[in-house]
Amino acid sequence: MLKQQMVSGRSWAIVGIGLYAAFFAADARGAVVDPIGSVFYEQTREAWGKAPEADEQELRYTDPVYHEELVRTGPSGGTALQFLDTTRLQVGANSSLVLDRYVFDPDNAKGEAIMGFGTGVFRFITGQMSKDGIQLRTPTTVMSVRGTKLIILVGLDGSSKVGVVEGEIDGQVCDTGVHLTAKAGQVLTVPADCRGATVVWGTLVVTDPLVLADLPGLNDIAPASGDDETNGPPNGAPTDNSRDASAF
Questions:
Q1: Which of 13, 14, 158, 159 is deepest in the core (most CB within 10 A)?
Q2: CATH architecture classification, 9-213
Q3: How many C-beta atoms surround the C-beta of residue 72 within 10 A?
Q4: Residues 6+ apart with CB under 8 A from 93
């Protein structure tokens, strides 16, 4: 039986020294034990997390994140999270999501990850967890994934656009029972009223440089001695995504 937020010696090897230090350090936010991941973006700013039964606190580089935590960013904010199985989530400006559930067994790569995207723009990259355990939710679609790299845009009205960069998704349209499949190079669009959902060839255009960047994971970051550069996006700091997150 899987243990919720399982942590083992192998998982530390997977996620790297940054997570190791974060997990064994005392958590100044006073949140529940057993983190499920960590902030891996050094230039994180205007980002906050609210773990269950804890006050909302500013998120900083290497801070742990927890099961059922609410994460949000400000107009010029952005952060990026890496989970125990190396799944990565980059969160653009003016965005919010809830880490609803996370279970991972590193011995067989089985687990369950459920994330609820409230509004804003995100980049999601799957890790070692078996893909049949991953579920991504917006107000208008529930997605299952297959070896996936996605850009997710959720409007203020709940409308959703999902650009598939790699892999494939199956998206259920609201609670209609209608399912649409989008492959690499396609965009799934679900309007706020759930009518006329489409899958078309093309690229989902967003402007947030943090979401556009393919950031290295913690285990891929190896700066040279004395190197002051950070693992920021190539096109500058996060910018206001209010236009991206508006109604389609």
A1: 159
A2: Sandwich (2.60)
A3: 22
A4: 46, 73, 74, 75, 76, 77, 78, 120, 121, 208, 210, 238, 239, 240, 241, 242
Instruction: Name the stretches of the chain with pLDDT < 70.
Output: 1-33, 220-248
* Cα(190)–Cα(28) distance, integer angstroms: 40
Selection from 108, 191, 192, 204 nearest residue 164 by Cα:
204
**Token pair for 191:** 């309007």
How big is the CA angle at 171 (ends 165 and 176), to the nearest 5 degrees? Answer: 160
Residue pair 215/231 in contact (Cβ under 8 Å)? The answer is yes
Judge contact between 172 and 179, C-beta under 8 A: yes
Q: Which amino acid is at 122?
A: F
d(Cα 143, Cα 114) in Å, to the nearest integer?
A: 10
What are φ and ψ of residue 19, in 5° steps?
-70, -40
The DSSP annotation for 105-128 comes to ETTTTEEEEEEEEEEEEEEEE--S
The per-residue pLDDT for range 184-206, each reduced to its tens digit, is: 999 999 999 999 999 999 999 99
Which of 38, 45, 48, 35 shows the shortest CA–CA distance to 18? Answer: 38
Say if CB 70 and CB 54 are below 8 A apart: no
For residues 236, 242, 247, 248, the Cα torsion angle rounded to the nearest 10 degrees is -20
Paired sense of beta strands 64-65 and 110-125, if any: unpaired
Type of residue numbered 19: L
